[in-house]
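From the pipeline queue, job 12 of 40. The input is one protein chain; the requested action is below.

Action: predict structure.
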Amino acid sequence: MNQVSDDATTTAGSRVAPGLIPERRAVDRLLATLDQLADNSDHLFKKSFGRFDSGGLSYAMPRYLFLGPKGGGEAIRIGIFATIHGDEPEGALALTRFLSALEQNPEIGKGYCLFIYPVCNPTGFEDNTRHARSGKDLNREFWKDSREPEVRLLETEIWTHAFDGIITLHADDTSNGLYGFVAGAVLAENLLEPALREAEKFLPRNRQRHIDGFAARNGIVAECYEGVLKAPRELNRPPFEITLETPQKAPLHRQVEAFSAALQTILVEYRYLMAIAQNI
């Protein structure tokens, strides 16, 4: 923790009250293991995709690509996003565990091109705050003509790569168990339900009838807030979209393992669904 004087200001230029402010955390340190994994991999590559300025400092938006063994057709493109809320680094840590599992067993990622975005809110992570340093909740800004540079960069990624699926990772400090958001009964039954079932090997599921203000059934929520990270409505072929949530107060290692198990399950189940669809 750092002391600040009476006339201290934040890097965004707004005045802060005297007292204690959180010590800044380093994004590079969070990603160090992931970088090392990429340096020694034939499948994983580090490819930052943009920069922005905040408070006179320049920030890179980290991105990693995992190219699985070739499947029988065109690669399936999945975007996986974490730490859009800066005080939720659990998703970034889980992606390291998930990619380590794919390195050990690349067949899980067969036929996939995974676009990994472990820290979508670098300034929020540095400051250990939900919001970006601008004061905005980035996960309410998408497809609203936002001026937030992180949102604009991520929107460009979503447009450019035309993902077949979008998965976001969150940690909920008000939940007592795992749950997820998804649109559509088919996806709920065939992707999210088996993913939550595998994740339950590490953490309990939230089975409350209302979660985060929405009606829920067995930990599955079919509605969501406006402005969350997702695909625009104008796409001719919209991707499947799943948000996975762990209980943030649970032990970190259990959240990491639960996320990793859920992600691996989604890859296996979605590839199976695509194979069935091609044979219909």
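Job complete. The two ends are 60 Å apart (CA to CA).
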